Amino acid sequence: MQNTLEKIAAQLTSEISNSLSRCGLMYRIFSRVKTESSIRHKLEVKYAGKKSKLQDMIGIRIVAYFQDDVDALALYYSVGDVVKKAIDELDSSTFRPQRLNITSRIPSDMIEEFVSAIPEEIRDCVEPTYELQIRTVFSEGWHEVEHDLRYKCKEDWAGCEPYSRALNGVIATLETAEWNMKAIFADMARHNFLHSDYTAMLRNKFHLRFKSESLSEPLNNYLIDNKHLAEAALNVDRLIVVCTLLTHKADFDLTYDNLFYLINRIEMMDPSLVAMEPEETKHMLDAFLNS
């Protein structure tokens, strides 16, 4: 059972990883498969006498570097063959971590293999789904500590509410650090714009893994002469750009030039910039946006 499910988990993880890498997102990804003993224990403790089924035989966790990437990934993975979403709404007066778990069906070409791997006597208690968790790097570290030293040891924390609240306060501190980090890069991008350093502006604005070193000289010079276009790119909603990169499936060569041409296509449509597109880039963008 374990080997088959781990093979399916590895395939799912690889497909997700390829999609995220194609978009240039900064992330880490992990997967795990429940052991048979863990499954039986959970069915006895949590699902005994209930009609609901175990849905997280396979778990995949995406750890993004930035909170706005979490927002983009949550939006992207909330559509499709989704069975259940557990996305907590945060409020201003409570210290608690945000749960962002999305349960989706195993792809049709893997279902038969998945089902056959489950022992027959518990097969009716397990649903052919996997759970996707999305977190930031900062919250991932906190969750790992909390899961092993509080969630699994609830009896240790009985009568220790002040300590429990203080531990929740740590996640609030980490959330503040995430907001501060985002603000630093936004301020850096604004500083780069004011000093006409448009490569650095794009790098700090979008914080993606680019495949080139800088903007080409012709495009950079054009932006120096047309500063309003650089400012328009600075002010574009990053979520729109990242979701565009995620949603379209054709190949996209993520260079600084190509990203700027893409932003122009989806937001600004400056005709002179469109005319500047190299022929190969033009064909790539046409295929990408039509995919």
Question: How are the secondary structure elements laid out?
Answer:
Layout: H1 2-22, E1 27-33, H2 36-45, E2 58-64, H3 67-77, E3 82-87, E4 100-105, H4 108-117, E5 129-136, H5 137-149, H6 161-194, H7 198-206, H8 217-225, H9 227-235, H10 238-247, H11 256-268, H12 271-276, H13 279-289
Parallel strand pairs: 2-5
Antiparallel strand pairs: 1-2, 3-4, 4-5
Explain this structure.
With 291 residues, the protein is an alpha+beta fold. It has two domains: 2-164, Beta Polymerase, domain 2, CATH 3.30.460; 195-289, no CATH class. Helices cover 57% and strands 12% of the residues. It is built from 13 helices and five strands. It is flat. The mean pLDDT is 91.
What's the quick description here?
Helices cover 57% and strands 12% of the residues. The chain has helices at 2-22, 36-45, 67-77, 108-117, 137-149, 161-194, 198-206, 217-225, 227-235, 238-247, 256-268, 271-276, 279-289, and strands spanning 27-33, 58-64, 82-87, 100-105, 129-136.
